[in-house]
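Hi,

I'm pasting everything inline rather than attaching a file, because the server keeps stripping attachments. The sequence lines come first, and each chain or strand is labelled.
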Amino acid sequence: MAKGKSLNPPGHVNLRMLAEHLGLSQTTVSLVLNNSPSAKSIPPETRQRVMEAAERLNYRPNYFARSLRQSRSMSVGVLAPDLSEGYFTRVMNGVVQELTAAHYFYFTACHDWKKELIEQYPRMLVERAVDGFLLLNTPADQIQVPVPVVAISAHSQVENVTNIVLDHHAAVEQALKHLHGLGHRRIAFMRGPKAIPDSEFRWEAIQQVSREIGIKVDANNVIRIDAEGWSMKTGYHPMAPEIGYKPMKALLEKHRDFTAVFCFNDIAAIGAIRALKDAGFSVPQDVSVVGFDDIQSAAFSTPSLTTVRQPLMEMGKRGAQVLLDRIANRDKEYPGEITMEPELVVRESTAAARA
Amino acid sequence: MAKGKSLNPPGHVNLRMLAEHLGLSQTTVSLVLNNSPSAKSIPPETRQRVMEAAERLNYRPNYFARSLRQSRSMSVGVLAPDLSEGYFTRVMNGVVQELTAAHYFYFTACHDWKKELIEQYPRMLVERAVDGFLLLNTPADQIQVPVPVVAISAHSQVENVTNIVLDHHAAVEQALKHLHGLGHRRIAFMRGPKAIPDSEFRWEAIQQVSREIGIKVDANNVIRIDAEGWSMKTGYHPMAPEIGYKPMKALLEKHRDFTAVFCFNDIAAIGAIRALKDAGFSVPQDVSVVGFDDIQSAAFSTPSLTTVRQPLMEMGKRGAQVLLDRIANRDKEYPGEITMEPELVVRESTAAARA
DNA sequence: GACCCGAGCTAAATCGTGTTACAACACGAT
DNA sequence: ATCGTGTTGTAACACGATTTAGCTCGGGTC
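And the predicted assembly:
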């Protein structure tokens, strides 16, 4: 009665208080609650008593004290360029599923492609003791941290980093064989911005596959997304279809010697289609358009988009799984690269080439 | 030399180690580094010496130990239903700007509309000592936490919560006056899912404004988005245009006695347009469609969407500002509600009613 | 009787910081 | 000599959990 139980700050039950209340030592209570291996010798009745009291007094172990001891925080850092509509949300849907199931939380940090932020954020998050990093679409070369790193859609062969990548050869092959099979020979290519790791990688795949299939890549038919369009500093539209609209319009003003366009992603493809329509073309009768990613609106825009589906959610899930696994077994060997398979989704935006 | 400096785990400099190295006590070093008021008496030279050593040895105070002592974390919790394409990313763009500028990080937690998670996550994040909460599109009634809360797009008059809301009367008035002005009299309304706080609020505004303008709301022309479509458990498409496609299709199978549709949001509007086209209608010649939000794809879908623009980014910015202000001055008075103004954006999806 | 053993527990150290209470000393004033 | 009063620090505890090392006691073995 004089145990002092009633004068506590309510809702803040200690291990000490719990132990006092039970007439046991903190050690015993802790061992039971954590189901520690050295708790074998504790009889079931005592166990039961401890569990019940913890439940009844609504005991919650203090997060910081526990983390201080075990030096792990049950949280990871997610580094991404921005909170973009297409890519980010889809990958994160998969990531979140896995992290949540493992009782992990995550910090998100957007570097907006700024070099200094790409170096600064990892340091700041290490100070907050994240147990690992997940990089989305972000070059990993410069990142040196004392915890495991998994990079999704990056291609840096660096110690400590596991890459989750798409099989780009297969992806490009499916798209180009589809167009080739429809009779397209003069194909325009829209390259991604330099900053994005996938851009160069995919471009090389395009050149290689083109040689294999026998498609000529004409420099006059290669356009490039302007990296500025991706920046936050545009304010209102960080990553609008505009990024595809502008280069397509520019190309159309020079010449119209192509029957199909292979776009860097779906958002750009939607913009490109808009530019084609504005120029008096109809899609797919006059020009076929192929996108990349298969974001949600791809199926519902008009015309619906033929596109190379990246299994973004699965890539997120897989990435998170690997990261959690590497965190749990820090000295186990880990894969340097994991490849995921794409899938061509044929919809309305492609058709046989006009004669 | 034999001070043991070289046999440390590198990158892990203690306060103790720093103090030893300096030949001072931990207290002194701590006082200097935190610029504590009781450090007044410490001479500038000693100060200087401490600061330099900390810099040189790259000393970083342990986050857990520090938080364990002072229980605050320089981070906030963001609670949202999901990482949806339209709403979430736009609001967060504004939020992130403000938080980053104030050197705050944030945890994101998606409750997926599950009651138990809406109660559980705040508790878990309080354990992690977040300094405040930001609720997106999430009812705040049940949330009891010892830190400031700002709710964006919610309408709960609860102690401790500041609401950032849209002026729904103005929003609905602009949309309906636009349609009324184009000659539309028989208008179909798509209500939002029950779970979303804005749904009921907007519906009441619709009823009131309709009375004021003289538009009849016919129960046969009211459809509702099926809440299940929003759930994660659908796996692949958490929040696709499908949510608008299905109810629109169902309505069209019953009757076609309307010349315009006012949709709950842009994503649903895109789905509804698709359903109208599938049924042989053309938009806007046969049926006008008005959306809500003005998400990025609204301007680039075909036809481009007439919609009520919510200043989502500004709402996020404002919400974060208020939260940070309330965190910094915990006892200052705070606003219970802040109203933001909408703006009608007229594009291609609306036209004069057919005779 | 010495020795070991397992069952059932506990005291005390540890993690790294922040903070309170107090020590040692100098200097001048009484 | 004593007292006050800054100055310049330090020892020790608090925060709350985990973990190591070990204690006690009854019973069995040789």
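Residues 197-213 of chain B form the longest helix (17 residues).

If the labels don't parse on your end, tell me and I'll reformat.
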